[in-house]
Amino acid sequence: ELPPSEFMQVADSTWLVLSVVSNGREPPGCQATGVTKIARSVIAPLAEHHVSVLMLSTYQTDFILVRERDLPVVIHTLAGEFDIYKEEGGECVPVTCDDVSNGFLKPKPPASPTLHPVQSPQTRFCVLTVAPDTLPAIATMLIDVLFYSHTPPWDAAAGSQDLDSITFFSFSLIEGYISIVMDADTQKRFPSDLLLTSSTGELWRMVRIGGQPLGFDECGIVAQIAEPLAAADISAYYISTFNFDHALVPEEGIAEVIQLLQQRQESGR
User: Fold this and answer.
1) For labelling alongside 116, which of 54, 91, 170, 226 has CA 20 to 30 A away?
2) Looking at the structure, do residues 77 and 126 belong to the same domain, yes or no?
3) What tens digit of pLDDT does each residue of 164-208 get?
4) What burial class does residue 79 get, using C-beta atoms within 10 Å of its C-beta: 0-12 exposed, 13-18 middle, 19+ buried?
C-alpha cells in the first residue's frame, strides 16, 4: 500500500520468516539466549549452505528471515535437526523435503566470508516491552523519538570507525507483542511505569557490524558474530537492518565480546 517514492529503497528479494521454537532438548547448563542460542543449530548450517539471512531479535523470541527463493535449501539443511511446519489458513502443517524437492539445487561451496569490521559505541541501551493497551499513552513520545529526535543527515559519515555514540531506536510489533530498543537517555523521557524490562533491568552495549552498508547477498555475517559468542556462552540480541547488523550484549560482557571479535579478525587475516 506504500506509494512509490524516490526516497524509499526496496530490496529485490521477498523474504519469509522462520521462528525457532525450543523443544526442551537443550543440554543442561546452556545459558545463552538470543541469536547465540540458535547459532550452532540454525545460523551456522545456513551459512555453510550459502543462505543469506536477516536476523531479528524481539523481547519475546527471535526470527530469521530467509529469501523465498532459498526456501528449498533451508528446508533440506534444517530438516535433519528440526521438525518444520508452515502456516496454511492459520494452521501449522508439517513440511517435508519432498514438498520442495523439485526446486532444490545443491549449493556450491561458499567462498570464505568477508570479515567485516565492528564498532562498539559507548552508548548504553535498554531492551523493553510495553503492554499493547498502554501503547496510546506513549504514542506521541514514540512518534517524536522515531521521526523528529536526533535524526542524522543522509550524508552522515556512516563508515566512521571511532563512534563514541550511535543513534539507534528499534520498534517492532509482531502478533500483538511489542519490542523496543532505545538508549538509556531516551528511556528517561518515557513514563517508567509503562515500559517493562527484565527483573534485573540490565543495560546492553552494541556491536555494529560493517564499515559500510552490507547489502543482502552475502552470507555468514550473522554466523561470524554469533558463533564465537555462543562458544563463550554470551547472550546476544541481534537486529539486522537495511544497512547494517547490530548485536547487543550485556554491558558487563562487552570487553570479552570485543576481545573475541578482535581475535576473529586477526585469525582471518
Assistant:
1) 170
2) no
3) 778 899 999 998 899 999 999 999 999 888 988 876 678 999 999
4) middle
